[in-house]
Amino acid sequence: MTSLEQGGLIAAGSKPTNRWPRQPLLAIIMRSLGACRFLAFMLIAQFTLMQFGLNGWQCPVYFATDYACPGCGLSRSMVSLSAGSFERALDLHLFGPIAALGLAVLVLAGFLPSRPRQSFTRAIANIEIKTGLSHILLALFLLYWLVRLLTGRGEINALL
Q1: Please, which residues have CB within 8 angstroms of residue 34's CB and are 6 or more apart in sequence?
Q2: What one-character DSSP code corresponds to residue 59?
Q3: Distance between alpha carbon 15 and the CA centroid of its chain, in Å?
Q4: Nearest 5 degrees, angle CA 112-CA 136-CA 122?
Q5: Chain-centre distance for alpha carbon 17
Q6: pLDDT tens for each residue of 2-32
């Protein structure tokens, strides 16, 4: 029995059909109710602070290096998205809408009753395992950050 089977993320005996191992990333967080709720709370708090024009948590990578981290601009992007400014949201951070969807998944998983949460977590794990979506998005996220750095969009002032 694999660790994914033991953790209840995939059905016993099922195997990914791909050539390389794909571990679910989001489903592993969703499996831990405490981690899920903590992350959901922190992300909602950041989003709420930004929504009301208050500075949320400042990026420690930026303050140490004067360059944006991979996630710099995500909060502002989600605030723009919630205000209906899709173009501005994408301009601030291309992954803003995807981060908003991830936040919605974490919030939902953090507050669902046990059985539905387990079913939801297994469904997300199956999607992640079969498609490799979380790994593809992570690779694209890091590539996007590299492009931003190389084109001068990695400076925080360019994001404002």
Answers
A1: none
A2: P
A3: 25
A4: 30
A5: 25
A6: 556 555 565 555 555 555 557 888 898 889 8
Within 8 A by CB and 6+ apart from 65, the residues are none
- 2-10: Cβ within 8 A, 24+ apart: 4/125, 4/129, 7/31, 8/118, 8/121, 8/122, 9/121, 9/122, 9/125, 10/122, 10/125, 10/126, 10/129
The answer to whether the CB of 79 falls within 8 A of the CB of 56 is no
pLDDT tens-digit series, residues 90-132: 999 999 999 999 889 988 999 999 999 999 999 999 999 989 8
Write the CB contacts of 94 (distance below 8 Å, at least 6 apart in sequence). Answer: 144
Global model pTM greater than 0.90: no
Domain boundaries, the chain: 24-58+71-131
